[in-house]
């Protein structure tokens, strides 16, 4: 063990607490305050968007029933998934603000990822249903009220634009908000499609355009919903964040002054913007004091990779896990 810990322990390695803990604590508290403030803003934006979307949902359902428009019904279905997604996102945002406890030491931030995954599944189901119904109706298009389609779609477009504006800032760094934003974005395109279709039907009388537009909306939604689902599943499977190259992290750690080798490296995220890391580091002789080397490693992770939650085990000699780059569980017997 390093000189700072020889009197207390003689195992192959140990986790070392940073000497700059007070500074790290102040930084962490400031970061947590900013995060809570941002979550409050996300909650207000989600709540207002939910009210607006719910009003338009009722209007579009009535309009689809009165006009017979599948495109309008598809937009109403999207609005319904919007309302459900926004409700889930709002609940998840509030739950995520609850503090950690002995049973959930990472807190409740994972609810955001579960909400985003639920939103993606809702989008996929809605897209599949609309595509099926549109294909079925193309052969026998029903009679439509293009005027009613047009005015309700204009109302939906206005509400979607307002909701997108409310959610735009949060969707850049929060998967939960991104899922809700994608729902509203798809509805905005749906409203534009219904408006274009209603005008075209009024000018040409081609009522099959209604189903064609609904099909196009569904085909636009499905791949984006799938991409969101893949991203959320990566988080749920403890995968490395998409913007973090683990090979680069390993190379940077191995090249850090005072480090001889790196093993048992894991990088994962609990939720959006909450990346964690654990690693075993073998100190190079002559051994740098543990607190100095740990501080050096933590600064590197924070400045180069924006990783602020890390557990680093510093060893004089490689431990039994050294044969595995990303080992997990008991080491195999020699």
What does it look like?
The chain is an alpha+beta fold and 334 residues long. It folds into 2 domains: 38-236, Up-down Bundle (Alpha-lytic protease prodomain-like); 242-315, Alpha-Beta Plaits, CATH 3.30.70. The protein has helices at residues 21-67, 70-96, 110-139, 146-167, 175-204, 208-236, 246-254, 290-305, and strands spanning 13-15, 259-269, 275-283, 309-315. The protein has a 4-stranded mixed β-sheet, with helices on one face. A hairpin with a 5-residue loop joins strand 2 and strand 3 (275-283). Helix 2 runs antiparallel to helix 5, helix 3 packs parallel to helix 5 and helix 3 packs antiparallel against helix 6.
- The CATH architecture of the largest domain can be given as Up-down Bundle
Q: Return the CATH class of the largest domain.
A: Mainly Alpha
How many extended strands? Answer: 4
**Helical segment count:** 8
The mean pLDDT is 75
Query: What low-confidence regions span 5 or more consecutive residues with pLDDT below 50?
Result: 1-40
Quote the distance from N terminus to C terminus. Answer: 22 Å
Arrangement of strands in the largest sheet: 1-4-3-2
Shape: elongated
Comma- or semicolon-separated keywords:
alpha+beta, Alpha-lytic protease prodomain-like, Alpha-Beta Plaits, 4 strands, 9% strand
Short description:
The chain is of the alpha+beta class and 334 residues long. It has helices at residues 21-67, 70-96, 110-139, 146-167, 175-204, 208-236, 246-254, 290-305; strands spanning 13-15, 259-269, 275-283, 309-315.
